[in-house]
């Protein structure tokens, strides 16, 4: 069975080792999912070494935070390009192009002699990551086996496609959570010797991913209709999709204030900071893959999303205004709320619009990733203008704004939020970059 949001219903165990298990997947799926783990590692990799980078390159906190800003600014703009590229050269070539760019620019980042060079190389890295990650879910959707009891519907058309979609979302969220958890840990282990080593390590791991994709993944079918650069922007004319994007914009500001600014507030060694964000990532993974689907099945997606956003707002405010121990606990705890939010927002982007999935999700991501670019830049600036607490008060306010958008625009978010199979389902490339 499936819930109305596309996740597994209560009673299904997607991780059961039987024939309908999420774990029984083709090698192409595991190769893509494995490379996705490394791609998501790259987001949090620099977290525990931000103070070390600042010290090594004689840079301020706001200058070093531009590592996130350049990365996600390019990612946001690239959302308009990924569908355009993949609909012309195919999913496999798009994945390989993205991986190649990450290998090159991550390696170059490790050779940087100034913070300006490092920021520039992170921008190139962001373009490669956008091309890869936005296409990875599409590939997993196309190749994943259905899960649970829904497998029996695979001969009935839409039911099987939805089952495969649910399996893909769970695999993708698992890769995201594992990558976000391991990124800070790898960054700490390698960065304790030198802040340069994590960049070289990422380049090496992505090179392995490139070889695995080359060996195990066959070319994917191309869509019958090529995507134009403006199609994602036009898709935002749909009220439900626009509402989801605006709400996610506010949420992402909160998310990336925690991710990019908290290391400076905690002011810990790379090992300790890496341990904190590893625990944060473990909660993110567990709540996105295990807890969120069960909460959705019981309470409904929008209630879960609104409540989780309010709890995240309270958490980050306490993080900013509490003592050091409180800040550590709240940083770790925020991973639970972020994990729930990531899953629900992903499913909203997949189902709320009647536009083809790749087009709708590209428009959605185009909006929300601007907040991921803004937060790392603005948070340290706000701290310089005021004090260390105020950026977290702002982050709490933006999470509440995200919840208010969900409440006010509830009808728009639910009227079309059925698990629709788009008209071009067999040729879709789902381009959701979920964090």
Structure description:
This protein has helices at about 25-45, 50-55, 60-65, 65-90, 90-110, 115-145, 160-190, 195-215, 230-235, 240-265, 270-300, 300-320, 325-350, 355-385, 390-410, 410-415. By secondary structure, the protein is mainly α. It has one domain (about 25-425): Growth Hormone, Chain: A. The radius of gyration is 20 Å and the shape is globular. The two termini are about 25 Å apart.
Which terms summarize this structure?
Growth Hormone, Chain: A, 74% helix, globular, mainly alpha, disordered N terminus, 435 residues
- Anisotropy-based shape: globular
Helix content: over 70%
Q: Give the full name of the CATH homologous superfamily.
A: MFS general substrate transporter like domains
Distance between the termini: 26 Å
How much of the sequence is in beta strands? under 5%
Give a short summary of the structure.
This protein is an all-alpha fold. 74% of the residues lie in helices and 0% in strands.
Detail the topology: elements first, then pairings.
Blueprint: H1 27-44, H2 50-56, H3 61-64, H4 66-89, H5 91-109, H6 115-143, H7 158-191, H8 197-216, H9 231-235, H10 239-266, H11 270-299, H12 301-321, H13 324-351, H14 357-385, H15 390-408, H16 410-415
Helix pairs in contact: 1-6, 1-7, 1-8, 4-5, 4-6, 4-14, 5-6, 5-8, 6-7, 7-11, 10-12, 10-13, 10-14, 10-15, 11-12, 11-13, 12-13, 12-15
């Amino acid at each position: 069975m499936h819930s109305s949001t596309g996740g597994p219903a209560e009673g299904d165990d997607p991780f059961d080792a039987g024939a309908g298990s999420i774990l029984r997947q083709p090698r192409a799926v595991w190769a893509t999912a494995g490379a996705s783990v490394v791609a998501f590692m790259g987001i949090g990799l620099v977290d525990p070494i931000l103070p070390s980078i600042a010290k090594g390159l004689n840079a301020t906190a706001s200058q070093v935070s531009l590592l996130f800003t350049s990365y996600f600014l390019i990612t946001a703009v690239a959302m308009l390009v990924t569908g355009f590229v993949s609909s012309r050269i195919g999913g496999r070539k798009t994945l390989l192009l993205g991986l190649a760019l990450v290998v090159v620019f991550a390696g170059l980042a490790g050779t940087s002699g100034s913070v300006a060079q490092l920021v520039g190389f992170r921008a190139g890295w962001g373009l490669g990551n956008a091309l890869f990650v936005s296409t990875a879910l599409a590939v997993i959707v196309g190749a994943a086996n259905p899960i649970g009891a829904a497998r029996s519907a695979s001969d009935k058309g839409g039911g099987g496609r939805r089952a495969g979609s649910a399996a893909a979302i769970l695999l993708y969220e698992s890769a995201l959570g594992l990558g976000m958890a391991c990124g800070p840990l790898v960054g700490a282990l390698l960065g304790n010797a030198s802040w340069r080593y994590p960049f070289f390590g990422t380049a090496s791991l992505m090179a392995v991913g490139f070889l695995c994709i080359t060996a195990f993944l066959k070319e994917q079918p191309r869509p019958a209709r090529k995507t134009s650069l403006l199609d994602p922007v036009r898709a935002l004319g749909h009220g439900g999709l626009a509402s989801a994007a605006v709400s996610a914009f506010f949420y992402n500001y909160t998310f990336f204030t925690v991710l990019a600014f908290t290391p400076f507030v905690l002011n810990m060694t790379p090992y300790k900071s890496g341990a904190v964000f590893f625990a944060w990532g473990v909660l993110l993974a567990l709540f996105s893959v295990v807890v969120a689907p069960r909460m959705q099945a019981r309470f409904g997606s929008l209630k879960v999303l609104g409540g989780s956003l309010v709890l995240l707002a309270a958490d980050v405010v306490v993080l900013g205004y509490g003592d050091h121990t409180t800040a550590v606990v709240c940083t770790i705890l925020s991973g639970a709320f972020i994990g729930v939010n990531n899953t629900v927002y992903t499913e909203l982007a997949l189902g709320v619009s009647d536009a083809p999935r790749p087009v709708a999700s590209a428009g959605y991501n185009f909006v929300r990733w601007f907040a991921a670019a803004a937060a790392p830049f603005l948070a340290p600036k706000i701290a310089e203008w005021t004090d260390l607490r105020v950026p977290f008060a702002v982050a709490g306010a933006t999470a509440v704004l995200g919840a208010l958008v969900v409440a006010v625009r509830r009808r728009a978010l639910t009227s079309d939020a059925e698990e629709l199979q788009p008209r071009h389902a067999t040729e879709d490339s789902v381009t959701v970059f979920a964090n």
